[in-house]
Structures are given as structure tokens and as C-alpha cells.
Write a structure and sequence with these properties.
The longest helix has 9 residues. The chain is mainly β and 143 residues long. The chain contains 2 helices and 10 strands. The termini are far apart. The protein has one domain.
């Protein structure tokens, strides 16, 4: 099952918090406080999250595309997550989406690469990432 709102179709939510060994939340969501992607950092995508006195740094290598949205821009995602009975968390893998489909169709040069759509859900900001492999996670890194 999927949900279409405007031109944004999405389905197949899978919560990755436990598999990625995310720290157990005292409250459900972290705040995304920094996003870095530049040649100065050797081109990985770095997403910094904070909650109370804790910080997490997610580093994605082999990033093909990413975008940041506030919760209202992807409100349909939360409807689908709820319908699919997937718990609230911080990192999801999304099985199918308009974002992934459009990117895959426009970049035939990638051949048979397995592109994974990740969603990092922050308190008031979300980051979607299309990447080849999961992020590395460092806990309590200083800014």
C-alpha cells in the first residue's frame, strides 16, 4: 500500500534504529542541527543530530542525492508509516518512492546499482538520502 499526495508516492517503511544501533531514545526524535556535503569533507554527507546532552553524527558515503524537508512537506510519509504500523524512530529505509523512482529513471548511467532511500527523521526537519550503503554512526561526537 502507498499513499499519493500531489506527486509524492511512498511505501515500504522499515525502521533501522535497532539494526544501526542507534542509542535508545529518552524522547522519540532527535533534532537535526547540521548538514554538511562539500569537497572540504571529501564529499560524504554528514548529518548531525542532537538530543539533550547527546550528539550523533551520521556519515553517508557514496551519496547520489539528498534533500532536506520540514515535516509538512512530507506529511504523507507519516500517514503511510502509521498505516504500515512502523514505529516512530530516527532512521528509516523506504522501499518505493517518487523521489527514488525519478532519480533512478533520470540516471541510467548507474547501471544495476542498488540505490537505497533513507529518511532521517528529526524533530522539525527531515533529510532524505539516496545512497549505495548505510551511514556510519558516531555517538557523542562534539561539534
Amino acid at each position: 500500500m502507498g499513499y499519493e499526495m500531489g506527486s509524492h508516492m511512498v511505501s515500504g517503511f522499515k525502521l533501522l534504529d535497532d539494526a544501526m544501533r542507534m542509542p535508545a531514545p529518552a524522547t522519540p526524535l532527535w533534532s537535526i542541527v547540521d548538514i554538511r556535503f562539500a569537497h572540504l569533507h571529501d564529499w560524504p554527507l554528514q548529518v548531525m543530530l542532537e538530543r539533550e546532552a547527546s550528539q550523533l553524527l551520521l556519515t553517508f558515503h557514496d551519496v547520489l542525492s539528498f534533500r532536506a524537508n520540514d515535516h509538512t512537506a512530507i506529511a504523507n510519509y507519516w500517514i503511510v508509516r502509521s498505516e504500515e504500523q512502523v514505529a516512530v524512530g530516527s532512521i528509516y529505509q523506504i522501499g518505493t518512492s517518487t523521489y527514488l523512482d525519478e532519480f533512478s529513471q533520470s540516471t541510467s548511467a548507474l547501471g544495476g546499482l542498488q540505490i537505497i532511500h533513507y529518511l532521517i527523521a528529526g524533530y522539525d526537519l527531515c533529510v532524505e538520502v539516496l545512497a549505495i550503503r548505510p551511514p556510519e554512526i558516531v555517538v557523542n561526537v562534539s561539534r
